[in-house]
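Why show two proteins at once? Because comparison is the fastest way to build intuition. When a single record is shown, students tend to memorize it. When two are placed side by side, the eye starts asking what differs. So, the first record is below.
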Amino acid sequence: MKTHPPDQSRRLACRALALPLLLAAAGSAPPAAADAGGAQALERRVKAAFLYKFLGYAEFPPQAFADPAGPLTIAVIGSDDMAAELARIAAGRAIAGRPISVRPLREHEPVPAVHLLFVAGSDGERAARVLRGAPAAYLTVTECDGGLRYGSVINFRIVDERVRFDVSLDAAEKKNVKLSSRLLTVANRVQKGGA
């Protein structure tokens, strides 16, 4: 068996995860759509592809499913555009044999039990309020400065003009979600214990 130095192993793991993410991000959008929407639309597509893929790298507890064949549910607060992009990516697809349901939520709407909750926006205090009000959300994802401090399991960041993400193992443990080592390998930062 061939072994690789740690840096090379990390690059190989990043490539293994990045290729499906890039393919999902590119999706079926025509080139003109990317030009018209600009950098913000591209960032949204990349983040949506990550969100979709996160479901495949997370193991949820049995009680997360009321029905053995029930869907994986995603709720999005703060961005109807992100909810629409996720719905487009997930249309007709399944993860571990389960269909995917995407639901946009309004700011003050109660958060139902969901497998993945994405809180859009850069306002950390708002994200903290939403996360406190979403005890039944398993895999929580934010995109604000310090999102992990507020209890998010995964927080998006822009590093060198690329979408990256940090992971809190403590938050995942509190939510009873197990994350694949393949996902942790490509994270920008994995936090265990205090910040």
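Second record. Ask yourself what differs from the first in the token line.
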Amino acid sequence: MPRAKTRVASRARRKRIIKSARGYFGKRKNCIRTAKDAVVRAGTYSYAGRKQKKRNFRSLWIMRINAAARQNGTTYAKLIDGLNKKGVTLNRKTLAHLAVNEPESFTQLIEQVTA
């Protein structure tokens, strides 16, 4: 009886790595060892990037809210404090959308909170 080898599994493993490395430059796209290192490193960066994206968007929303609040004569901190005291449960993403796309509604909201 012939000896069983891991040809199918190893070929599949290598194909998966090469497929993940598609679009990379030089040896990184077709040399198994180099491609494997590149794919692992890319995975690490993409994992960290998914976490950073959340931080970056929250920061962007806060900047937009602060800019719109200052145009209406208040600050971000005073606005958030007023919203909390009034019991308004709008998240920062929604507030930033209002500030950018519907400035009249945002102004009315500020007037209700600061009054």
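One difference worth noting in the second protein: The CA atoms of residues 50 and 67 lie 26 Å apart.
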